[in-house]
Amino acid sequence: MEYVKIFFVNTALLITLSYLANLIYKHTVTYASEPVKKVSWVLLAIFAGWVSTIFGYRLDEHVIFDLRFVPLIISTLAYPQPLVLIIIGVGTGLTRLTFGVTEAAVVGVLNLSILGFVCAGLSLWMQRSSASVIQKGLIAVLVVNVVNALNITVFGVIPAQEYITDILPVTFPAGVALSVLFALIIRDFQLDLMRTGQIVRANELLSEQTEELHKNKIVLEERAKQLMLASQFKSEFLANMSHELRTPLNSIINLSQLIEESEDELSVEELAEYGGIIHRSGEDLLSLINDILDLSKVEAGKLDIINEDFNVSEIPDLLLQQFSVVAKQKQLDFDISLDTDMPGVIHTDPQRVQQILRNLLSNAFKFTMTGGVSVNVRVVERQEGLSSRKWVAFEVQDTGIGIPPEKHDLIFEAFEQADTNISRKYGGTGLGLSISNDLARLLGGFITLHSREGQGSLFSLYLPL
Fold first, then answer.
1. Is residue 178 very low, low, confident or very high in pLDDT (cuts 50, 70, 90)?
2. pTM for this one?
3. Can you spell out the DSSP letters for 439-465?
4. pLDDT by residue (tens digit) across 367-404?
5. Could you tell me the maximum CA-CA distance found in the chain, to the nearest angstrom?
6. Each residue of 190-226: pLDDT tens digit?
């Protein structure tokens, strides 16, 4: 009867330790890394076995009966890793030596070490078996209790006959029953931990989803603002476009009608003047239509780029032919310079390069009232990560009205200008810079802007050398 009492005391101690360990695990170890959890479990199992030995039943001065093998059974069910179970078995056995190095203590070390290897074998079987958790638990309890009884019979210091007839009939069923009871309690703890873990993971998932929804809401609101602005800009663009289209068309229609309905013969000077106005209006109309077509081709990805050799030395003559008259009319200085280290030929699309430069210079002259406009072509080296790369830079500098820093990105968007009043005062549709920016990207380059309001602007076209 004393064995049963001591076994119940052992079970009560183990349950208390399990409850305390459960609390500690919930509030500390559960947030630790996997190696820390593993080490914590090993130390707890060994400590539980040692506590069982302290409160075990002392048959004599050296022989102790207890449930030190129960933590090993629980480890087999809760932490089925062979190496961990072997360490727990050997470690629990070695704690027996703290009560004195005797023949019984050595047998205790051998017994628990053998049980550790048996449990390691059981864990491998459990990983492969399709049996239920209850079936696996019952088999583990029976196997460990049977092997423990056999070890005591074979290696124990108690005579085998005395152990089998007097002690085993009491300790074996009591050990099995209390092992099963403790396993059920631990299983309940384990299920509680699993539920807690599931709740924690569910809360984390909900928090992530809430945060993601908040981010998506912000993105959607931003897109809604962009769509509203785009709609506003397109409405303004259509209004500007109607004006830009109507002006040259009205000139062409009115002057051609005037020539057709004129009863008196018009003088040569008048015909030349009217013809010049019609010609310029037609060119303005054609330029506007070309801009719209280019923009639509870029957006559709159907704008062709034809790379060929481009003689850089021809750039000054080409630009002077196109803009020297405008410079004289507005009484502005117009200078073009090429650095001495510029290569004679670059490989790119000459037509598109000239189109970009025309757009940049048209804006420069349009928004410059005093001072001048200059073009400088040079080779620059820009750092890209760990390496550097050479580029040809076409820099268009003016002394015009300038652009506020907060508008620098805006003016490269289609249908947009730095200020909606600009289109009324200076004309234009806001397509030039957008098309130029897209063309620069298609050529493998980019456009930069340095400008401040009232201090002029510097647009730089970079093309790979």
1. confident
2. 0.45
3. HHHHTT-EEEEEE-TTS-EEEEEEEE-
4. 888 999 999 999 888 877 677 888 999 999 999 888 88
5. 147
6. 677 677 778 878 888 888 898 999 999 999 998 888 8
Token pair of 34 as six digits = 């996997």
> For 8-46, how does the pLDDT look when each residue is reduced to its tens digit (9 = 90+)?
666 666 667 666 666 666 666 666 677 877 888 788 888
Instruction: Specify the pLDDT at position 57.
Output: 65
258 touches 280 (CB < 8 A): no
Rounded CA-CA distance 365/375 in Å is 12
Q: What is the pLDDT of residue 418?
A: 46
Provide the angle, in degrees to the nearest 10, between the axes of the packed helices 2-27 and 70-78: 40
**Closest by CA position to 30, among listed 207, 209, 206, 190:** 190
Q: Which residues pair with 388 in a beta bridge?
A: 383
134 Cβ contact partners less than 8 Å away, ≥ 6 residues apart: none
Q: Please state, in angstroms and as integers, the Cα–Cα distance from residue 184 to each residue in 15, 190, 251, 356, following that order.
A: 11, 10, 98, 81
List all residues 6 or more positions away from 53 whose beta carbon is below 8 Å from its beta carbon.
64, 66, 68, 95, 96, 99
Name the nearest CA neighbour of 356 among 303, 449, 415, 434.
Answer: 434
Closest by CA to 335, choosing from 373, 379, 392, is 373
- Taking the C-alpha atoms of residue 24 and residue 4, their distance in angstroms, rounded to an integer, is 30
Per the listing, tokens 């070695």 go with: 94
